[in-house]
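Quick one - first record:
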Amino acid sequence: DWLAVRGVPFKEAHEITGKLVQLCEESNIGLEELSTQQLADYLHQDLIDLALTTSTFDQNDFQPALIHKSEAVCVLPLDHPLRDAPVINLKLLQGSQILSLNETDEITIKIKSLLQYDRVSDEFAIETPSSITICALVAAGNGIGIVNPYVANTFAGRLLIKKFEPAINTAVQMAMPAHTAPSSLTRHFVD
């Protein structure tokens, strides 16, 4: 996501990520994808130095820094009937198999609110805690999703990425433990 925020093409981001994973393994540094709650728990326990998320950290526990703001996008299979639509809205998606993040995710909460307002069923075909899973399922032709653009862009070329209206804001936040000094590696990363 960090590379996608900066517009790094997928192939280059994949190579960079591969090198990072290899370097972490060689240096005995853990690199994991965790839920925002798991990240917060790990920060509280000083198990990690830094956390990035597209969800919201509790303002009482951390002083998260806003890294980037954007809008959620709709992802569709390459051969989807709406492939030529410049903008996707919920009315166009009626009857579609919508894949969603779990019910506590901010994007999901906003989508359900919009669906209820438009009197459209707010039942989702599949709920998952990962935008990566949604994009992989969509790329394989198993429905549509509304996800953050950071993950969607890593699947460019394998699925369609469309502007979604009404806009659903999404942001990347960074947090560090409040009660310990950051490591030199963390300071270097943040600077």
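second record:
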Amino acid sequence: SPYPTPLHRLNRSVDRGLAAMVLVVAFQILGRYLPFLSRALWTEEIARMCLIWLVFIGAAVGVRTSEHFLIDLIPSSVSDRAQRIITTLGLALVAVVAVALFIGGLSFVQTGLGRTSTTSGLSLVYSFTAPLVASVLMLVFTIDVWWEGMRKPQEGGLRMVEVEQAEALAVDTPTAQSPTDAPERNRGDRR
């Protein structure tokens, strides 16, 4: 598809957030050692805000691509019914964590509404909103992964997939390389 999908847009926003964090930290480091650059105090807070958002959005993307956990003890040759049960139980645990994060995130956002950063003057609600947004994304992605696991138990569900494969499974279009054809990465051989 010539148009970027929502998951691609989310990945690009994570890439941009990482680039912004690197630039801000580089500016902060250069400001310490180069006399012609003023030492900016706001860079630490902006870098921390970028890191917070990257962690939480990255966690949500990890739920969508099933990169958080894999069950290697169960052979891939189990029946479709067993795969569906495993997928449902695993994703139910993810949903419980996402709901807990959402509930905690609500009170966290309320705390951030009345606070501002000491050096940059930004409202802390911008940082404190990250867990709330990520929990909603995690719930949406959990439902999406569960649904694909019910439709295609041997390909979807808790099997780790690349972003393109996740999108193809979600819209039910064939990919150049299915998750079962992918190299050893699908078997959880990550280092």
